[in-house]
Amino acid sequence: MKPPSIPIEQASTKQDILEHLLRQGQASAIELAESLDISPQAIRRHLKDLETEGLIQHSAEHAAGMGRPQHIYQLSSKGRDRFPDRYNQFAVSFLDTLIETVGEDQVDQVLHKQWQRKGIEYRNQLGNGTLQERLEKLVLLRRSEGYVAEWYAVETNGQPSFIFTEYNCAIAHVAESFPSVCGHELEMFGAALNCTVERTHWMVDGEHRCGYLVRANS
């Protein structure tokens, strides 16, 4: 028997909920309803479905001045796996084998060269526009590779700067065992954009995103 099809509108709304939780880390039903401009009743139906599917989970949180706790929702491991994560435990095992074979320093040099190559590849695609234009192109490139990425303008010490954020990591499993790769990735962003890039948030530290402060070289 063929399973019933899911209306496109419902599938789209559920994906919007998952992406919102990916970006924000957690949210209540009311916050989701307001953000997505959907009725609280409809949001709760979608949340119930997503929780039944094992894609989200909730915890009870007492709001100030209120006796009844509200549910705070976040992605489960299964829900986070819905977003691209190209490297799995095979990559970690492969790196372990390389370290046993040629040594940690040699492997680190290879990883560094790989990120340098990626930085040059990006830089050639970004062109010679303004820093904002180059960052816009980088975000589009990362999105085409499966990242949930965004940017926005800020001001630091009177100088225009930008925050660049990614909410999923294609090398998450590798970074957990070899956090040095994140340092190489940070250097890669700086080389690709030809600017100063500083880390502001890091998934390896338990945060729900990786964030970077991007500013012109002084």
The major β-sheet equals: 4 strands, antiparallel
H-E string: HEHHEEHHHHEEHHEE
Question: What's the shape?
Answer: globular
The CATH top-level class label of the largest domain: Alpha Beta
Radius of gyration, in angstroms, nearest whole number: 20 Å
Structural class: alpha+beta
Question: What is the average of the pLDDT values?
Answer: 85
Level-2 CATH architecture of the largest domain:
2-Layer Sandwich
Question: How much of the polypeptide forms β-strand, as a percent range?
Answer: 15-25%
Protein name: Iron-sulfur cluster biosynthesis transcriptional regulator SufR
GO molecular function: DNA-binding transcription factor activity
Domain HTH deoR-type: 10-65
Keywords: Transcription, Transcription regulation
Give a description of the structure:
With 218 residues, the chain is of the alpha+beta class. The chain has 2 domains: 8-80, Orthogonal Bundle (Arc Repressor Mutant, subunit A); 89-215, Muramoyl-pentapeptide Carboxypeptidase, domain 2 (2-Layer Sandwich). It has 9 helices and 7 strands; from the N terminus they run αβααββααααββααββ. It has helices spanning 8-24, 29-36, 40-52, 77-80, 89-102, 104-126, 131-144, 172-177, 180-193; strands at 27-28, 56-61, 70-75, 149-156, 159-166, 196-201, 210-215. The strands form 2 sheets. A 4-stranded antiparallel β-sheet has the order 4-5-7-6, with helices on one face. The protein has a 3-stranded antiparallel β-sheet with strand order 1-3-2. β4 (149-156) and β5 (159-166) form a beta hairpin. α2 (29-36) crosses α3 (40-52), α5 (89-102) crosses α6 and α6 (104-126) runs parallel beside α9. The longest helix has 23 residues, at 104-126. It is globular and about 55 Å long. The termini are far apart.
